[in-house]
Amino acid sequence: MKNKKKIVWDLFGGGQNSVYLSIKESNKLDKFDVYTFDITKPIHSKQFHLDLSQDNIVDIFKQFPQPDIIVASPLCQSFSNILNMKGGGTCFWKLNEKKDKLVQRSKKEFEELKSGFTKNLNAEVQLFLKKLGKKCIDNTIDLIKFYKPKYWYIENPKQSLIWKYITLNRKDFYAPKKMFLNNASYGKYGFLTSKETNFMSNIKMDLFKGKIEPPYYVKEINGKKYYVLKDDETVKLRRDLDSRMIGISSINKMIKARNVNSGMGGMDFVQRQKTPIQKNKMSTEQICESGPASAIPHKLVTHIFSYFEDLDEFESFNINLIDLIKSINKIDQESNLKIHKILFFIYGMFYKKFSLELFHPNFSAQKNGPIEKDFCKIYKNDKKEFINKFILPGDFRREHWIFLNQKISWLSSFKTSELVTLSYKNKWWIENYRNKKNEFIKKDLQDSF
């Protein structure tokens, strides 16, 4: 029987910032059923034009299948550190006097403090964006709280003020002991920029981070300096552009750059005008952030979803182990013997294949084969503690769980007497029982498989 697809709700996932496209690119659509919600033009059958800043968001989503996973990249404009104001905060966000909550800045204060990058910004527009950003993150949190997905993440740039908003203003949601702020660098996933972003999640992930070697160099041409792409020197850009990142001004160059090995096509294509232009963003619905500047690398999304898959396999391992215990529910000699033999073989086979320990062994060579002395005591007194004896290290991955699940199922199909006979052929047991060495040396056991 095929495993049921995991239902994924991808909030704000239109355009280039699409989890669906990442899953499709990694050939995982047979495992994840992605529902995309944004105001962009749909690109697949389960993408819905839906304003995520609406009221009653929880009720609106009751028409869709219950999610196993919710992922979200809420609007970051009003929380962006690019719009820093004198004294801290952004255009209309600031810390209160106690510094224990984000509060709204007044229009008067905004006008008095704006300068540099913010000096040409319109107060009404920025206040509207602040309220819109708050609504979008609140709705995201409310959906996660109500639908309780198995896995979830909220993504925003590392320096975004959204993290202070969640930890200070949404204490009804934030649980520091149960949530993790996972940091990643775009440059480690094929993008040109070393831009960092965070994924707040209910699982801990060791994502790739750190700076990258720029895939371009600076060259002087006819007395002017240019950024030149190392992989393709026909792709270049004037160095004196007023831009916080290298930009690509031409769509044709953009497409061309996407095909080179450097990953330049995944960078933030931001090219500021000499005179900033304030667009009218005061629409009646959620703003779209589907452009290149907000795109998350597909390889990064794939890496995160591999964690979801790993944890599912780990859960299957636990279920298989519990089912094994339930199937051998009599505390008698034969039941105990089968458990001990299975433990003996999965420990040895797992160590031989991966050089990792599944638990700290304490085997004794007895007449009826190897006996794990610690498990013997634990199993009789507390079956739950039996599970907890396993090490289950953080570097276990999906291939490890798949291997264990297969071996437990295979070994469980043998009769107890067959497993005992099989254990008699193990050289560690022969050495320790027949020759009456009666001592446990872990390395000898590991070498016997």
What does this structure look like?
Helices cover 36% and strands 15% of the residues. α1 crosses α7 (298-327). A hairpin with a 2-residue loop joins β13 (363-366) and β14 (369-372). The chain has helices at residues 19-25, 57-60, 107-113, 123-147, 162-169, 251-257, 298-327, 333-354, 373-381, 383-388, 398-412, 416-423, 427-434, 442-447, and strands at residues 6-11, 32-38, 47-49, 69-72, 93-95, 102-104, 151-157, 180-185, 196-201, 216-221, 224-229, 236-238, 363-366, 369-372.
Brief description of this entry?
36% of the residues lie in helices and 15% in strands. It has 449 residues and is an alpha/beta fold. The strands form four sheets. It has a seven-stranded mixed beta sheet with strand order 3-2-1-4-7-9-8, with helices on one face. Strands 10-11-12 form a three-stranded antiparallel beta sheet, with no helix packed on it.
Q: How would you describe this structure in keywords?
A:
alpha/beta, 14 strands, 14 helices, 449 residues
Topology:
Layout: E1 6-11, H1 19-25, E2 32-38, E3 47-49, H2 57-60, E4 69-72, E5 93-95, E6 102-104, H3 107-113, H4 123-147, E7 151-157, H5 162-169, E8 180-185, E9 196-201, E10 216-221, E11 224-229, E12 236-238, H6 251-257, H7 298-327, H8 333-354, E13 363-366, E14 369-372, H9 373-381, H10 383-388, H11 398-412, H12 416-423, H13 427-434, H14 442-447
Parallel strand pairs: 1-2, 1-4, 2-3, 4-7
Antiparallel strand pairs: 5-6, 7-9, 8-9, 10-11, 11-12, 13-14
Helix pairs in contact: 1-7, 7-11, 8-11, 8-12
